[in-house]
Amino acid sequence: MTDQLKKIYSSLIRYEERGREVDGAYHWFMTADNDIIGIHESEVDDKNLAVLTAFLKPYHNEFPEMTAEEVKWRQAIDAGFAAEDSETVHPYRFVYFSIKENQISPEIFKEAVHDLFPGSVPILWENGHEGILIEHTEIGSDNIIYEEIIDVLMSDLYIKINFLVGPFKEGMEKAASYHAFMKTAAASIFAHSDKAVANLSDAVPYMLIEGADNSQHHIIREMILQDYAEDEETLKMIDVFTRYNLNVSETAKALHLHRNSLQYRLDRFAENTGIDIRKFHHAMAVYLAMLATPSE
Question: HSE of 80 in the Cβ direction (CA atoms, 13 Å)?
């Protein structure tokens, strides 16, 4: 494709051929073959730009220059499969991040990330404030603690950031589907939860609820929560109970209740609804029903 476009646009250059002084004068695109190309603005009027963006993916040059490893990952994800020579020696995981818009440039964020991680961390940007970190780990090495990273970024750079941490994987053959799922999960949990660091398991309930329409949300709440659907005190008790892993003692302590008082409230809920949230599957149904908030 690149060679064919070169016949039409004589100014076309590949990303690796560019000079820094001409970057701003070029429109940049990614082809279906994962080539990053630039066409000088003198050859691209509004009509040409509309045609090019219809079948080429615009490439935003405000992002830091991609490393060889980032190009490898981007090609594996965009193409849907890894190149034959693309092998990962160590397990890796995708960590989706979302920064409040216009708080920090991608260049400065990348420098900060490289200062906080023990090795090189590829970053694949979705836009100017969201993207995926690719964390590698060696056998015996410590996992990154993202709560600590947030504390550093908040104190040093004053930026608000959320992370969705995926599971470790081996091999790049399923990188595209892994990446797509992380994007969907991130959109879901960032829209509904203010949790600074979430795991993929935190996002799944929101994704399941989003699959239901508004009328189904009403039914779920009415059928499961019944007369407690608007009982804020009981809903808070259930929320804390699930967050403390159905532990009665820890929940009672968090709610400043005597353990027997909490047991009594749990008994009453079970008697009135037929649902005993001390049982895992019952608790999960109630938890999902609490997430099913109908829109106005």
Answer: 2
Q: Roughly how many angstroms between the first and final C-alpha of the chain, as a whole number?
A: 49
Which of 66, 88, 86 has its CA nearest to residue 76?
86
Question: Could you give the CA distance from residue 217 to residue 210 in angstroms, rounded to a whole number?
Answer: 9
The type of residue at 219 is I
State residue 150 phi and psi, 5-degree precision: -60, -45
Mean pLDDT by 10 residues, the chain (296 residues): 87 71 72 79 88 81 80 82 56 90 82 84 88 76 77 84 89 86 90 86 83 81 88 93 93 94 94 90 88 70
Q: Residue 155 corresponds to which amino acid?
A: S
Closest CA to 290 of 200, 225, 213: 225
Task: List % helix, strand, coil for the chain (3-state, nearest 5).
Answer: 50, 15, 35
117: which DSSP letter? S
What is the reported pTM?
0.67
